[in-house]
Amino acid sequence: MAKRDRRPASGPEVTGTCPCGQGLPYADCCGRLHRGEADAPTAEALMRSRYAAFAVGDPDYLLRSWHSGTRPPRLHLDPTQRWTGLEVLDTDGGGLFDSTGTVEFRAHYREGHDPGTVTERSRFVREDGRWVYLDDDLG
């Protein structure tokens, strides 16, 4: 079994409610995953933690939670984009005993005064026993 990369994220300190929409404090929710203290138990939990990483500006976590075969060498987040909400539309698989799963979601953002949305059907797989983002299945 390959060694897991559990280095703490170098992202910003975040206080308040987690951006993932679960209603928990960030430190006790996705913050634990971002810091490498826990792995996401389901594909949906990983997707929510990745959304939260976009919202708090943590590209290191996004790269660590990306499948090794599809992960880009680096990731630059647009500092003008503010992520404002997440809706989970559908899930298929991705549970505690699954090896694959998909999560369809709609993410809301603002760029300046202009609102926008991204709708995606993300595919997740287990790599070295933990959930990772594989790619999107847009069509």
From TrEMBL:
Entry-linked Pfam families: YchJ_M-like (PF17775)
InterPro entries linked to this entry: NTF2-like_dom_sf, YchJ-like, YchJ-like_M
Highest taxon above the source species: Bacteria
Domain called YchJ-like middle NTF2-like: residue spans: 42-135
Cleaved signal peptide residues: none
TM helices/strands, residue ranges: none
Assigned protein family: Belongs to the UPF0225 family.
PANTHER family per the UniProt record, alphabetical: ADENYLATE CYCLASE-ASSOCIATED CAP C-TERMINAL DOMAIN-CONTAINING PROTEIN, UPF0225 PROTEIN SCO1677
Name recorded for this polypeptide: UPF0225 protein Vse01_20800
Protein species of origin: Micromonospora sediminimaris
